[in-house]
Amino acid sequence: MTNPTSEGRPRTLPGQEGTALSRSAARVVGVVIVVVISVAALLVRPSLVDASTGVGEASEGAASSSVMETGHTTDVTVKVDGMAFVPSSIEVPAGDRLQITFVNTGDQRHDLVFANGAESGAVAPGAQAVVDAGVVSEDLEGWCSLPGHRQMGMVLDVVAVGASSDEDAGADADASSVASADSGEGDMDHSSTATDSSVPTMAELAEAAENAEPYPADLSELDDSTEHSYTFTVTEGTEEVAAGVTRAVWTYNGTSPGPILHGRVGDTFHITLVNEGTMGHSIDFHAGELAPDEPMRTIEPGQSLEYTFTAGRSGVWMYHCSTMPMSSHIANGMFGAVVIEPDGLEEVDRSYVLIQSEMYLGADGEAADATKVAAGIPDVVAFNGRAFQYDAHPLTAKVGERVRMWVLDAGPNSPWSFHVVGTQFDTVWSEGAYSVYHGTSADGVTRGTTGAQVLSLQAAEGGFVEFVPSEAGHYAIVNHQMSLAEKGAHGVLEVLE
Ligand SMILES: [Cu+2]
Questions:
Q1: Distance 462 CA to ligand 1 centre (A)
Q2: pLDDT band per the 50, 70, 90 thresholds, residue 152
Q3: Residue 48 has pLDDT above 50, yes or no
Q4: In angstroms, what is the span from residue 333 Cα to ligand 1's centroid?
Q5: CA of 324 to the centre of ligand 1 (A)
Q6: Which band of pLDDT confidence, cut at 50, 70 and 90, is reported for residue 490?
Q7: What's the distance, Cα to Cα, between the start and end of the chain in Å?
Q8: Is there a contact between 478 and 412 (Cβ–Cβ < 8 Å)?
Q9: Sorting pLDDT into bands at 50, 70 and 90, what band is 439?
Q10: Fold entry, domain 202-496
Q11: Where in the chain is the domain with CATH 2.60.40.420?
Q12: pLDDT at residue 228 above 80?
């Protein structure tokens, strides 16, 4: 199918299958090469069975076997401040055993793992654990292995004072630990080679969309109730992004986006947040105004909280997990929308909601690669949680019907230049204001024959557009930042006679 109007639309082209096959073959070859290199590295450096340092790192520390055990134990207490260990660096006489009392003074669970395999296990806020890091014969790196925490700066450097290679290794160890933290290549993470080859192609994403149940994009009907009660249960699972590519997803009520709520100005929402995950989570509703301290706090697995807000103003308001690192929690699926209609909003024939979000694929089955998230270049961009799903399962309308599309950019990072190919928007409402309207709008302004081609959204911005298709056909819904459309921010509105 080659439709000249479908910008960025995935097409099945001759030779595409062959491309997919050769990609798979390339992956196998890549894995084999990585394994061969890893084995070779272990053979060359038998004393460094240390996945966190990776292949090709300086090996000055190999002289460590000359260090004599002192029989002495160094005891250190390590605490948490925000997303950092305090202290973040520990000096230990070479040959001493290092015992760390890890006290989690943070507001969510953390752990402390070392490159030599010593680890605390998950430690809840307020709790503590003792880690025996063994006899320190060379510099040693530790970090928090919860997704994104290491990249946020939760790194603990152990410096072996007086190790034979200490003089010259010191500077190198600092440099290499920085490089290691920057690249995010640790044994709890994955090599960038493996990550890059696992990013699905447009055709693979489109095929996955064919096989998946689409997220319902219809905005639910409003009823007369002014009080709304919901339970939001957080769980952690996995989903298939494309054949053979899975990712961890953290969700509200099992879907990403979570439930789309709908109400009027003045409505009150009573939310019970239940955390059935394995780490701390939270929720932040932009639709209400309140002090964040209590309702937006991070709760531990097994805990719940009550969050009540009144929607004082209209908008398509984002909600999301606000537990650090927020970029990772959003990228892993924890977002949704609350649609609060402006007073006097006209009835239309079709009302859809589209939320754009990004994926930064980590190792297969794992959470988002926090280093990629920080770099801000997504692997996959989705409408309502899945790339190309409305190409596979188009939204529909009829000729002459007024179509309203509510749009929200959940991010965490990328903008959305929202455009519907073949249409001009005769109505645009963004972040609380009309810029274009057909006739005289509820705010009493007549805007005549103005129109718009795009509704521009930065992360967390939202609004709606309206248009009336005059001909039957397939109207592509895109992010006109075309590279993002080609990564999945694309769908179709099928207009029937
Ligand atoms: Cu979360």
A1: 22
A2: confident
A3: no
A4: 9
A5: 8
A6: very high
A7: 21
A8: no
A9: confident
A10: Immunoglobulin-like (2.60.40)
A11: 61-165, 202-496
A12: yes
CATH architecture of the domain covering 61-165: Sandwich (2.60)
Give strand pairing partners of 419.
Answer: 478
pLDDT at 21 over 80: no
User: 61 alpha carbon to ligand 1 midpoint, in Å?
Assistant: 38
Q: Is 309 in contact with 228 (CB distance < 8 Å)?
A: no
Q: Give the pLDDT confidence score for residue 448 in this predicted structure.
A: 75
Model pLDDT, residue 496: 98
Element (H, E) at 61: none
379 class by beta-carbon count within 10 Å (0-12 exposed, 13-18 middle, 19+ buried): buried
Q: How far is the CA of 355 from the centre of ligand 1 (A)?
A: 18
pLDDT above 90: residue 3: no
Q: Locate tokens 């080679």: which residue? A: 193
| Token pair in block for residue 438 | 């057909």
- pLDDT at position 446 is 72
Confidence of residue 179 (pLDDT cuts 50, 70, 90): very low
Q: From the CA of 256, how far away is ligand 1's center (Å)?
A: 12
- Note whether 395 and 491 are within 8 A (CB): yes
Where would I find the beta strands (DSSP E) of 201-349? Answer: 227-242, 245-252, 261-264, 268-275, 284-285, 304-310, 315-320, 335-341
> Around ion ligand 1, which residues have CB less than 5 A away?
281, 321, 323, 329, 334
Q: Is the dihedral of CA 44, 49, 53, 59 positive or negative?
A: negative
> How far apart are the CA of 183 and the centre of ligand 1, in A?
23
φ/ψ of 165, rounded to 5, equals -95, 15
33 vs 128: CA distance, rounded Å: 41
Rounded to the nearest whole angstrom, what is the distance from the C-alpha of residue 389 to the centroid of ligand 1? Answer: 25
Tokens for 269? 């929402």
